[in-house]
């Protein structure tokens, strides 16, 4: 018996997005040849990987469910959209079986490990897959594309957290009852500047940068770290920059944050100049200074929002000319 759910209404689909951690949606049409070709593989994946309230495979006939297709900007068939906790995580607009298998396996492995953690401890309920701000419609959280083993964070206080906590999917401890006792954040060391180099596993398009910073509210303590104020962003660098070099270099985009940019969860949702952040293989974020009179800057979480393009060879950065054709 098929485990794939045929969607008969927008309300049914919305309910599935609420009840299942991962939803895989196959947007198809009966007349579409490539849709029919990939259908047996999709059904096989559904049979193997479907789990109640964890992974749900659906089929959406675009000739019948036009409202759903329009909401998620489906213009090519077949289109496969992967939802994680109700938000778009990946989007594949072809019938490439290798790519389909790869994404399904990655997402299912991740969710199954989360399910095991939930079974071991109920104390984290509601804290996994935390988001500090709304996801822009039509884009996905692509933070998993960061090649963590090759990242580099300069001027970091080694007595606090390491750079991996920035991409942690859990709710920051500063927003929990522990109030930050786990030290799952990073702070600058000798002054307020931080330099973070992030190479990617694939060529990306970046739409939005989400930064969470949750310094303790204690105005009487001179040691309390600050939130970032001025940030310079650079793309397609083969390695990290030096602080003096970054000070003098023209940035791809410079951000000036103020108190109004931070929401109740301590997250700044920053729309990037999308036309400038196309086809990128690495990203450098330079925190120039903090918003206040302190001596350190604190970062709790980072989320990169956009689209994933072609996968590149691991550990190999493309030169800018290779991408732009210059």
From TrEMBL:
A Pfam entry, by short name: PITH
Domain of life: Eukaryota
Domain Thioredoxin as annotated: residue spans: 1-109
PITH domain mapped to chain residues: 131-324
Tagged with keyword Glycoprotein: no
InterPro entries assigned: Galactose-bd-like_sf, PITH_dom, PITH_dom_sf, Thioredoxin-like_sf, Thioredoxin_CS, Thioredoxin_domain
Keyword NADP in record: no
Keywords: Disulfide bond
One GO term describing the cellular component: cytoplasm
CDD domains: TRX_family
Family per similarity comment: Belongs to the thioredoxin family.
Protein name: PITH domain-containing protein
Species in which this protein is naturally found: Lasiosphaeria hispida
């Amino acid at each position: 018996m098929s485990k794939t759910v045929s969607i008969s209404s927008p309300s049914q689909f919305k309910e599935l997005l609420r009840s299942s951690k991962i939803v895989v949606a196959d947007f198809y049409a009966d007349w579409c040849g490539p849709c029919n070709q990939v259908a047996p593989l999709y059904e096989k994946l559904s049979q193997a990987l479907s789990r109640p309230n964890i992974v749900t495979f659906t089929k959406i006939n675009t000739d019948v469910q036009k409202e759903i297709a329009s909401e998620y900007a489906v213009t090519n068939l077949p289109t496969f959209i992967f939802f994680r906790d109700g938000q778009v995580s990946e989007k594949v607009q072809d019938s490439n079986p290798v790519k389909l298998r790869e994404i399904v396996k990655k997402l299912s492995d991740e969710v199954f490990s989360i399910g095991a953690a939930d079974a071991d401890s109920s104390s984290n309920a509601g804290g996994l897959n935390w988001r500090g701000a709304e996801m822009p419609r039509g884009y996905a959280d692509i933070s998993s594309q960061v090649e963590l083993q090759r990242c580099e964070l300069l001027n970091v206080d080694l007595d606090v957290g390491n750079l991996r906590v920035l991409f942690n999917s859990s709710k920051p401890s500063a927003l929990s009852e522990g109030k930050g006792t786990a030290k799952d954040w990073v702070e600058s060391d000798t002054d307020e500047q931080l330099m973070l180099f992030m190479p990617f596993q694939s060529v990306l398009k970046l739409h939005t940068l989400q930064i969470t910073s949750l310094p303790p509210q204690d105005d009487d303590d001179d040691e309390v770290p600050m939130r970032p104020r001025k940030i310079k962003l650079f793309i397609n660098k083969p390695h990290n920059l030096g602080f003096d070099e970054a000070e003098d270099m023209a940035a791809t985009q410079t951000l000036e944050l103020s108190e109004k940019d931070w929401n109740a969860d301590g997250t700044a949702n920053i729309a990037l100049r999308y036309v400038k952040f196309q086809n990128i293989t690495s990203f450098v974020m330079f925190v120039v200074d903090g918003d206040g009179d302190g001596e350190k800057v604190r970062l709790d979480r980072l989320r990169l929002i956009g689209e994933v393009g072609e996968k590149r060879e691991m550990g190999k950065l493309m030169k800018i000319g290779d991408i732009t054709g210059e």
